[in-house]
Amino acid sequence: MFEQGIQRTLVVATLSILTGVILWGLCSGTIVNETLLPHPFSVWQEVVTQSDSGLLWESISISLWRVAWGWVLGVGVGIITGLILGQLRSVNAVMGPIFEFLKGVAPISLVPIMILWFGIGELPKVLIIAYITWVVVTVGTMTGVREVPKTRLRAARCMGLSELQVFCRIILPSAASYILVGMRTGIGFAFIALVSAEFIAVDKGIGFLIMDSRLNLQTSLMVVGIISLGVLGAGSQILYDVITRQIPWLSRFRRH
Amino acid sequence: MQDNWKQLKISGLSKKFLRGPVILSDINLTVDRGAFLCILGPSGCGKSTLVDLIAGFEPPSEGVISFDATPIRGPGPDRVVIFQDISNALFPWLTVLENTEFVLKNFVRNKNQRRDQAMQALELVGLGGDTQKFPSELSGGMKQRVQIARGLVMDPHVLIMDEPFAALDAITRRRMQYELKDLWERTHKTVIFVTHDITEALIMATKVTILSSGPGAHILDSFDPGLASDRDPADAEFINAYRRVESLIGNEHNDSESHAE
C-alpha cells in the first residue's frame, strides 16, 4: 500500500508538471511575446548550451555552497537560541520581543547593512541565508520546547530526575521532531534568501544568472535560473527527507 | 527517606490558587502502609488537585503531608503518579522496555540489572511479550500497564493513581480494575487511587474516602468497605456498600440544594 502511494504521488506530480509545461508552451509565442516568455524548447536548448559551457554547473555549485553554509550556520545557532528562548522564561522575557521584531525583517532588507558591515565577499551572503534559517529553526525549536506535554514533565519529576536530566532526557527528545521540521522548512527559506543574498555584488551564482540575463534580455537563461532554483530547493528537501529517514535513531523522534 | 514508614499523613490540608476559589479545605487523612485507598468524589471537586499536592507538583496553601513525621517536599521517586493522560505519560521515543528501564538509570548502575528489574515488572503486568514495541503501537490499556510497570519498578512508598482507567473503554476498564486488585494482593504496594466511579472504588479499596463537591471540597466520610476478597458487584454486601456511598454523596447533594433555596 505504501509503495502504491509513492507511485501514485509520482504519477500525479509528473502529470501536473507536464500539464504546466504544455500550457506554458501553448502561451509562448501566441498570447505572450516569445521574448518575454520563451518557449520550453528554447529553454531546454539554453540548459544544454549552458551545461556544456559550464556556466550552469558553476552557478549551481557556488549557490549551493552558499546555501549549505548559511543553512548549517543558521541551524546550529537556531537550535541553541530556540532551546534557550523556549526553556528560560527570564531570557525569553528580555529577548522574546527582540526576536519577534527580527521575525518580520525580510532578508533582502538586510542586504545594504550587511554590505556595510561585512563588505561584498562571501560572508555577508552566507549570513543572509543563515539569518532566515536561524529565524525558522529558532521558532521551530522554541515551539518544540514549549509544547512538551505537562504530564510528560510531571512523570519525569516523579522519577527524581534533576533539572538538567529533565532537559537532556525529556525536553530535548520531545522537541526533536519540531527541530527536524524546522530544519526542513529552513531549507526552503534558505533558497528564498539565496536570491536576496546574491544581490550583493556577485559575478557568479544562480541569483546572478537571473539578474544578469535580465540586463541582456536573455529570458530563456533567466527561466533556466528560476527553474534551477525550484528544482534545487525541492531536491534539497527530498534529500533531507531521505537522509533523515535513513538514520534509524532519528525515526524514533518523528511524530507518531 | 525512611524505608520503615508506617503512615502517610495528610493534616489540615487546604489549597487555594491565587485569585481563585478555595479548592480543598481542611483535608485530614491517613493512609496506612500497604493500604489501597480510594478517594471518591464528583468530577471537578478537586481530586486532581489533591493528587498534585500529594505528588508534590503543587505546594499546599495550608497543612502538611508527611510520611510519619517527615514532610514531603516536592515530587520524588517515593511517590509515583500513574496519570490519566494516557497519550502523554509514556516517552514515545522509547520502547516499552526502555520506558520501564528509564526510571532506574539514576538508581541502578548495572545495565543488566536494570533490564532484569524492568522485565520482571513488565511480566507482572502481563506485557512480557511486548517489550520491543513503541507506545504508539499499544492500546490504551497496554499503555496504562506500562505506566504501572514503570511505577512498580521504582519501588515507591506510594503509587498515586489519578483516574488511570477513565479514558479506557468499559470492558477494558473493568478488566484492568480486577488486574490491579490482583496485582495489589500480590505486591501489597500502598496505593492511593482517585476516581469518581463508585463501583471501581469498591472493587479495589481497603479504605474509601469520599470528598464533597467543590469548591472548598472536604472529606464527607472515610471507611473500610469491609468486603470479601472476591468483590463481585452483584453480591448483596457489595450492593449495600454501594448504597452507603451513594447515600453519603446524595445527602450532600440534597444539603447543598436546600442551602440554595
Strand and helix layout:
The complex is a heterodimer of chains A (256) and B (261).
Chain A: H1 2-27, H2 40-53, H3 55-87, H4 89-103, H5 111-118, H6 122-146, H7 150-158, H8 163-197, H9 206-215, H10 219-246, H11 248-251
Chain B: E1 7-16, E2 22-32, E3 36-40, H1 47-55, E4 62-67, E5 70-71, E6 79-82, H2 86-89, H3 96-102, H4 111-124, H5 140-153, E7 158-162, H6 170-187, E8 190-195, H7 198-204, E9 207-211, E10 219-223, H8 236-260
Helix pairs in contact in B: 3-4, 3-5, 4-5
Structure description:
The complex is a heterodimer of chains A (256) and B (261). Chain A is mostly helical. Chain A has one domain: MetI-like (MetI-like fold, Orthogonal Bundle), CATH 1.10.3720. Chain A is built from eleven helices and no strands. Chain A has helices at residues 2-27, 40-53, 55-87, 89-103, 111-118, 122-146, 150-158, 163-197, 206-215, 219-246, 248-251. In chain A, helix 2 crosses helix 10 (219-246), helix 3 (55-87) runs antiparallel to helix 4 (89-103) and helix 3 (55-87) packs parallel to helix 6 (122-146). Chain A starts with a helix and ends in a 5-residue tail after the last helix. The mean pLDDT of chain A is 89. By secondary structure, chain B is α/β, with parallel strands linked by helices. Chain B folds into two domains: 7-78 and 157-260, P-loop containing nucleotide triphosphate hydrolases (Rossmann fold), CATH 3.40.50.300; 89-155, ABC transporter ATPase like fold. Chain B is 38% helix and 23% strand. Chain B contains eight helices and ten strands. A six-stranded mixed sheet of chain B has the order 6-7-8-3-9-10, sandwiched between helices. A four-stranded antiparallel sheet of chain B has the order 2-1-4-5, with helices on one face. In chain B, helix 3 (96-102) crosses helix 4 (111-124), helix 3 runs parallel beside helix 5 and helix 4 (111-124) crosses helix 5 (140-153). The longest helix of chain B is centred in the last third of the chain and has 25 residues, at 236-260. Chain B is globular.
